[in-house]
């Protein structure tokens, strides 16, 4: 199902404001790495928001996600303060790990492996 105009507007607003909240709470750097919000998806009734987080060079992703989920109430409280005049009802926030960068790295590694195998196979044998 295609996203409606209002869903996209709310998702963009949440993305922007959550980025500010993460910076304010010091959640954008964690365990020696960087945390960024890669995307926000809002349900059609605007009652739920799925926040996809990208963790770059974080020591333990599961621990970092647990820390963020433990502070979800604090994140939501800050978010409510910043957007209370723009939304009537605050959506329920769910945090998910965005592993698309890992997938891209894995695919690139496979391509490099294939390329190195092809170059070793194409060299003449003496």
What is the structure about, briefly put?
The chain has 4 helices and 4 strands, in the order αβββααβα.
Overview of the molecule:
This protein has one domain: GMP Synthetase, Chain A, domain 3 (2-Layer Sandwich). Helix 1 packs across helix 3. It is elongated. Strands 1-2-3-4 form a 4-stranded mixed β-sheet. The model has no long low-confidence stretch (mean pLDDT 85). The chain is an alpha+beta fold. It has 4 helices and 4 strands, in the order H-E-E-E-H-H-E-H. It is 52% helix and 21% strand.
CATH topology: GMP Synthetase, Chain A, domain 3
SS elements, strand count: 4
Intertermini distance: 60 Å
Question: Mean pLDDT across all residues, rounded?
Answer: 85
CA gyration radius, whole angstroms: 20 Å
**CATH class label:** Alpha Beta
User: Mind summarizing the main beta sheet?
Assistant: 4 strands, mixed
> Considering the protein shown, what is the CATH homologous superfamily?
K homology (KH) domain
Query: How large is the share of residues in beta strands?
Result: 15-25%
The secondary-structure class comes to: alpha+beta
Total helical elements: 4
- What is the count of distinct domains? 1
Order of adjacent strands in the largest pleated sheet: 1-2-3-4
Helix percent reads 40-55%
What is the global morphology?
Answer: elongated
Order of H and E elements:
HEEEHHEH
Residue windows where pLDDT falls under 50 for at least 5 positions: none
CATH architecture: 2-Layer Sandwich
